[in-house]
C-alpha cells in the first residue's frame, strides 16, 4: 500500500511521529515529509535517521498557506500534531483551539485542494465525553475530519480518525514521571481508583497502518487494548516507594471512555477493534452485513475485559527504559 507513496506526518518529530516514520522507512516509500515547528528536533532527527528519502519541512498547522506548499504531490497525510497536555490546554485555551481545531480545518482544506488521497488524524480517548478542553478540542477535530468527507465534491480525498488511549512512555506521560519520582521514595498518585487504556507506540503505529488499509473515509477506528490501574503501575515502577494520594487534577477523569453509549448505536465490532461509523447519508452501507453494537454498551477503561497485571506493566516499563 505504501509502495512509491509520498507520506507527510504532521508533528513528525514527536514520539508517535518518529516511531511511525522509522516503521514506514522499512517499506518501499518514495518520500517521507516531516512537518513540525521545532527546528532543533528536526536537526536531531536528521542526524539520527540518515535516510535520503526524508524531507524536513518547518511549519505550523495553524498556517494554511504553508500546509498547501507542504502537501504538494503528497499521497498520504498522518496528522499527529496537537497541543495534547491537559493542564497546558486548560491554561492556554485559545492556543489549544488554534492548533487542535483551526489546525484540523487547515489540514482538511489543504488536503482537498492538493488532492491528497488519504488523511488519518490521531485522536484520544479524552475526546469521548470530554471533561477538559483538550478532549473538547479533539472531539471537535474528530467531527471536522469525519464531516470533511462531505466537502470533497469530485475530489478523491478521504479522511478517517484513529482514537486510542494513553501511550506507554510518550513525552510528558506517567511512566517517565514515576521513574523520576522513584528517586525520592514517594510516588504521587491522583486517585487509587484511576484506570486508563494502555497502548505501546509500536501498537499505535501498526494500528494506524492497518486503518489506512481499511478506511473508506469517515470512520473512527478504536483498537481493543487493555486497561491498567494506576496503583498497579506505581507498584510496577516503585514497589518500595510510599504512595502519596494528591487528588484528581483539574480536567481529569477517574476512568476514560473510547466508545460512548451514544456512539455505540452506530459502532461495529470486529475481533480486535471497533469502527464508529459516520451518521451521514453519503456513508451508505459500506460495511454491509456487519451488525452494530447492542445497547447499552460503553467501551470504558473501568469495565474493560482486558487488564494488565503488575508483572505485565513491569515488563512494559523495562522495555521502555531499555
TrEMBL record:
Enzyme Commission code: 1.1.1.-
Coiled-coil portions: none
Start and end residues of each Polysaccharide biosynthesis protein CapD-like domain: 7-277
UniProt GO molecular function: oxidoreductase activity
UniProt KW keywords: Oxidoreductase
InterPro entries (UniProt xref): NAD(P)-bd_dom_sf (IPR036291), Polysac_CapD-like (IPR003869), Polysaccharide_Synthase-Rel (IPR051203), PseB (IPR020025)
Oxidoreductase among keywords: yes
Matching CDD domains: UDP_invert_4-6DH_SDR_e (cd05237)
Pfam family, one: Polysacc_synt_2
Signal peptide residues on this chain, from the entry's feature table: none
NCBIfam families: PseB
Family of the protein in this entry: Belongs to the polysaccharide synthase family.
Protein name: Polysaccharide biosynthesis protein
Species the sequence originates in: Sporosarcina newyorkensis 2681
Lineage of source species: Bacteria, Bacillati, Bacillota, Bacilli, Bacillales
Gene symbol of the encoding locus: flmA
Amino acid at each position: 500500500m505504501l509502495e512509491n507513496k509520498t507520506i507527510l506526518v504532521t508533528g513528525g518529530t514527536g514520539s508517535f511521529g518518529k516511531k511511525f516514520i522509522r516503521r514506514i522507512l522499512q517499506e518501499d516509500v518514495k518520500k517521507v515529509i516531516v512537518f513540525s515547528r521545532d527546528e532543533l528536533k528536526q536537526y536531531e532527527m536528521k542526524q539520527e535517521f540518515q535516510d535520503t528519502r526524508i524531507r524536513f519541512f518547518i511549519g505550523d498547522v495553524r498556517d494554511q498557506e504553508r500546509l498547501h506548499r507542504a502537501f504538494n504531490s503528497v499521497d498520504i497525510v498522518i496528522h499527529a500534531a496537537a497541543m495534547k497536555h491537559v493542564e497546558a490546554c486548560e491554561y492556554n485555551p485559545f492556543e489549544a483551539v488554534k492548533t487542535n481545531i483551526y489546525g484540523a480545518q487547515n489540514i482538511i482544506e489543504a488536503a482537498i485542494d492538493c488532492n491528497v488521497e488519504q488523511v488519518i488524524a490521531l485522536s484520544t480517548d479524552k475526546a469521548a465525553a470530554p471533561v477538559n478542553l483538550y478532549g473538547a478540542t479533539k472531539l471537535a477535530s474528530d467531527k471536522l475530519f469525519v464531516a470533511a468527507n462531505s466537502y470533497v465534491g469530485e475530489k478523491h480525498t478521504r479522511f478517517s480518525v484513529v482514537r486510542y488511549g494513553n501511550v506507554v512512555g510518550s513525552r510528558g506521560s506517567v511512566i517517565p514521571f514515576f521513574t523520576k519520582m522513584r528517586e525520592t521514595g514517594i510516588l504521587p498518585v491522583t486517585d487509587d481508583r484511576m484506570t486508563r487504556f494502555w497502548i505501546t507506540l509500536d501498537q499505535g503505529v501498526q494500528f494506524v497502518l492497518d486503518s489506512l488499509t481499511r478506511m473508506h473515509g469517515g470512520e473512527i477506528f478504536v483498537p481493543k487494548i487493555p486497561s491498567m490501574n494506576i496503583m498497579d503501575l506505581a507498584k510496577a515502577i516503585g514497589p518500595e516507594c510510599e504512595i502519596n494520594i494528591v487528588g484528581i487534577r483539574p480536567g481529569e477523569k477517574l476512568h476514560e471512555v473510547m466508545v460512548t453509549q451514544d456512539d455505540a448505536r452506530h459502532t461495529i465490532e470486529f475481533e480486535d477493534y471497533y469502527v464508529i461509523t459516520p451518521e451521514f447519508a453519503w456513508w451508505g452501507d459500506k460495511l454491509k452485513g456487519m451488525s452494530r453494537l447492542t445497547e447499552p454498551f460503553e467501551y470504558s477503561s473501568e469495565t474493560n475485559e482486558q487488564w494488565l497485571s503488575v508483572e505485565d506493566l513491569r515488563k512494559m516499563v523495562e522495555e521502555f527504559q531499555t
